[in-house]
Amino acid sequence: MDDLKMIRELRSPAATMPAAVEDSVRDRLRAMAAEPAPPERRPAARRTVLRVGLVGGLAVATAAGVTVVQTVGGSKSGVQLAGAAELGDRAARAAEAAPYQAPGPKQWVYSRFLSAGGYDMNTWWKGVDLGKKQETSEMWNRVDGKSSAYISMKGELRVIGESGDLAKKGSGGPAATMVGGGPLYNLGNYHTLPTDPDALLRRLQNSRYPNQVGETGPEDVFEMMSHILDDPSPPKLRAAVFRALPKLRGVRLRHDVADAAGRRGEAFAFVDGLGERVSIILEPRTYRYLGTRQEVARPREVTLDGGKKITTRPGTVLGWSARLDQKIVDHAGQRS
Known about the structure:
Layout: H1 3-10, H2 19-23, E1 59-63, E2 66-70, H3 84-97, E3 108-115, E4 135-142, E5 147-151, E6 157-161, H4 197-205, H5 218-230, H6 235-244, E7 252-258, E8 264-271, E9 276-282, E10 289-296, E11 301-303, E12 309-311, E13 317-329
Antiparallel strand pairs: 1-2, 3-4, 3-13, 4-5, 5-6, 7-8, 8-9, 9-10, 10-13, 11-12
């Protein structure tokens, strides 16, 4: 649904990553898949990761007054949750109780995160290299959604979109145009979203980009919700997302999922149409957002250029992140 999903959908096994994109937040490119979805389901050049399934996951059946609960893995956090709905309710209550100060439209969200390294876009089916040193990345997003900035591989601050007065300060060259634009919803327009879980779910399911082809699917809605949780979004909206996630078809609870920093938590998990599982990981006591994990949940055959066929291997980690820090700052490049 956003610019990163666009890259995912346009990617082919032989595609090369543009230098400007490769320099940007590499964590947000880890979960791209080579095989585009069928045209009738694919929003043209607009769908993303989510930067967010589970096969076998949580199954709840009620018969003759008996509820059977099946989960993947056992919780080592000390928190026993019956399902995604309980996780959503607990996380929502924690969000509602958290202090919050709304940022100004010209302020920036600074984020620092850790991601698994060794990703090669041209051999995406091999996933990340868990044996390689993890990479720390930094990014700034302006609250009004009109500009972003990141540290390039050369250590320079680069600005994407409207540069404001950053160009005057020498930010590493003229601002680039953000590929495909940003997500439909961001800190600049979150106030337009309903905070009733059912109403929010309906709104996101009916959200469309101007150039979108096909219907908005559950994987797109899951992605939008993950993006909201990744932001320092308003408490009532976060609570609505937490309560709406279990209502989304295909979302399951997954216990004891580690983020890229090794912190373990409870996760909302979803398997998309390509058979890739994305997990939104929450700290098991405070329900703070920790990061995401993308992996192959079920095998699928992919034909590469030249006719060679490969089969994706379940368990292959395609993307793995951990958010280490997040602050509201006054300008890009500022960290505190």
